[in-house]
Amino acid sequence: MKPQHFISCKQCQNHACFFKQFVSSINHRLIESKKYQSDYLQGQYIIHERNPILGIFFVQQGKVKIFSSGLNGTPQIVRLVQAGESLCFRGLGRTTYVTSSVTLEASRVCFFESKDFMRICNSPQLSTYLISYLGNELEIAEKRLKYLMQMNVREKTAEALLFMQKSFSVNKKNELDVYMSRKDIAAIAGTSEELIIRQLSEFEKEKLIERRDHGSKIALLDEKRLNQLISKYNVLP
Fold first, then answer.
1. 26 lies in the same domain as 112
2. Which of 147, 176, 195 is the last residue of a domain?
3. CATH code at 172?
4. What letter does residue 95 receive in the DSSP assignment?
5. pTM
6. Looking at 120, 147, 174, which one is the last position of a domain?
7. What's the gap between Cα 97 and its chain centre?
8. 98 near 68, Cβ under 8 Å?
């Protein structure tokens, strides 16, 4: 069932979505007949790890974290997704999802069943784009995994902040344009929450960052120095 305020692809203002980018190559009537759209509250699961793969999700509005569970149950955030991006392209060809997805804010998500998505994407332009997209995502993931294993806590924390900045940008006050708990930041950095809290305090003393609104917002005061901390790793594109 379509939500009361269903947004068609023609009405959608999200030009980052690849359906919008390839508007001349897509049968919009086919899309509208096959697209489902759902609204999620902040903190709701969209995808559960190890559940059967039924199709492909796209974030129409909002922000989402994608994470996997370690051997001891500790989550590792592997991607941060904003409007226009997909949640599970890398699941194509598998039978179950290898990651979970949870909203970071109220979000609207489009969904296509796998068979319908493959039919919609039956065009050379879209196929080329998908190959490029998947290759880029895989390269970023492999780089982060390799270098995070070599970084100390100071470097991991800097990389996590810059990863959030690259994923969601900053507002006019140079504050990260998303709220993420210290536990989430630790899950991005691949370290403990206690070490993240300590390192953020050190960064604040060094005037690299400033925590505002009782810690709910983080402003990047010296992005150049944060980048210098991880420059030898070449981890961010």
1. yes
2. 147
3. 1.10.10.10
4. S
5. 0.87
6. 147
7. 16
8. yes
Assigned token pair, 78 = 């592997």
Measure the CA–CA gap between 200 and 208, rounded to whole angstroms.
Answer: 9
Radius of gyration of the chain (CA): 19
How confident is the prediction along the chain (237 residues), in pLDDT tens digits per residue? 345 567 777 778 888 886 777 655 566 677 778 889 999 999 999 999 999 988 889 999 999 999 998 767 788 999 999 998 888 766 666 788 888 999 999 999 999 888 888 777 776 777 777 778 777 777 877 888 888 889 999 999 999 999 999 999 999 999 999 999 999 999 999 999 999 999 999 999 999 999 999 888 999 999 999 999 999 887 765
For residue 45, the one-letter residue type is Y
Q: Can you tell me the distance from the alpha carbon of 10 to that of 17, in angstroms, rounded to the nearest whole number?
A: 12
Name the pairing type of β-strands 75-82 and 63-69: antiparallel
Cα–Cα–Cα angle for 139, 141, 144, rounded to 5 degrees: 105
Alpha helix locations (H) across the chain? 18-21, 28-34, 114-120, 124-148, 153-168, 182-189, 193-205, 223-229
Q: Is 7 part of any domain?
A: no
CB distance 236 to 162 below 8 Å: yes
